[in-house]
Prior knowledge:
CATH topology of the largest domain: BirA Bifunctional Protein, domain 2
Strand content: 15-25%
Radius of gyration: 25 Å
Order of helices and strands: EHHEHEHEEHHEHHEEEHHEH
Largest sheet: 5 strands, antiparallel
Helix content: 40-55%
CATH architecture of the largest domain: 2-Layer Sandwich
Shape: elongated
Distance between the termini: 27 Å
Number of helices: 11
Number of strands: 10
Amino acid sequence: MIGKVSKGMSFYHTIHYCLEDKKELSEQQKREMSVGDIKHKDRAEVLEYNLCFGTASELAKQFKEVEKLSRRVEKPVLHLSLRLASGDQLTQNELIEISRECAKEFGIINNQYIAVLHKDTEQQHIHIAANRVGFDGKVASDKNDFRRMAALCRRLEKQYRLTEVLSPRSFLSGKERLLPRHDIRKEKLRNDIRQTLEKVAGYTAFEQQMKALGYKVIKGRGICFIDDKRVKIKGSEVNFSLAKIEKVLAIRQELEAHKAEKQILPIRGLVKPNISSEAGTGINVQRQLANMLNDLLKPEYQPEHIGNDLTPEQRRKKKQQQHL
């Protein structure tokens, strides 16, 4: 089981994410991507309303009214999520039980919260959107929240005989934290971009295909992608800058034109292929273009480091800023 903890300021956006379908996908795409028990349409099932009830707007309004009981909280929204390992399965009653255990652990069992089951992945996962401010005006503590979540996951795994998923950060030595980390989210985006570029020959088609895969594409001087979890990743972070994408698409267009016309075409503004005079045929130009594409699209993993480069003084200041 993997648990995540986050705090925020917008009740509406957190609750809306938990309750609603994915905005980025059309109704047809949601239906087409739903296979078996996986549902991209009607993906959310409310397991429990605790001291609240209603639509996303109504819930947000109720939470805001109670938030006013505390004048010192800056981030009243608590968003918790628990994801089971692949192959693990719990009943609805068991999912409600673990959501209550989670609420107890984080001191919100007597606060407003909703527990929601999402059905858009193979693994069962639940979200809890809660008000950190209680009806008594007290704010639920966020002290050691990541450590508490890790301990809760280990306890629930034993209690419900689930697959044990150790938190890598908690169990790595200082040296091991400097080793490259495999970022699943970025790796997925990298593969989706690469596979899309292997199929399309124009920017419009590229953007449409990426949107069909659930990404929002923002193009300016550079390019970035927002996934279904609203995480924003720059193309350059996954080794696909806007310049590189445009270059790949230009080569693909050139290659398609060459295949269609079956003659040697110049490579407009791109690297000139090294073609010998005796082999300067259309086939060799096509081969050169294909080789250029392969070089641009070959997998490259850019390591990221798990480490803390902040000084003790910087860590102290950061901790103070994140206290509430």
